[in-house]
Write a structure and sequence with these properties.
73 residues, alpha+beta, Alpha-Beta Plaits, two-stranded antiparallel ribbon, 2 helices, binds iron/sulfur cluster, 4Fe-4S dicluster domain-containing protein, 4Fe4S_Fe_S_CS
């Protein structure tokens, strides 16, 4: 059975930099940026997409619905 993967997209200007998604991800796919978004926050970004196991924890955790997860079967 092929490993499940997902393409994770974070809408940077919805992000308020709470870091919950970074901490929720079991595979260190996400990290905080070194630049700020339009709201003035360091935002979460995808830094290791191939490691994603499509668990969706990040999307479930985000209080601002800034994360989109497109699961690939
Ligand atoms: S779906 Fe799971 S593995 Fe993929 S980025 Fe989100 S929390 Fe990490
Ligand atoms: S959980 Fe949502 S608001 Fe918080 S850092 Fe991640 S993307 Fe940004």
């Amino acid at each position: 059975m092929a490993k499940k993967t997902a393409v994770v997209t974070i809408e940077r200007n919805r992000c308020k930099g709470c870091e919950l998604c970074v901490n929720a991800c079991p595979k260190q796919v996400l990290a905080m940026s070194k630049e700020i978004n339009d709201k003035g926050y360091f935002y979460a970004e995808v830094v290791n997409q191939p490691a994603c196991i499509a668990c969706k924890f990040c999307g479930m955790t985000c209080p601002d619905a800034a994360i989109e997860i497109a699961v690939e079967e």
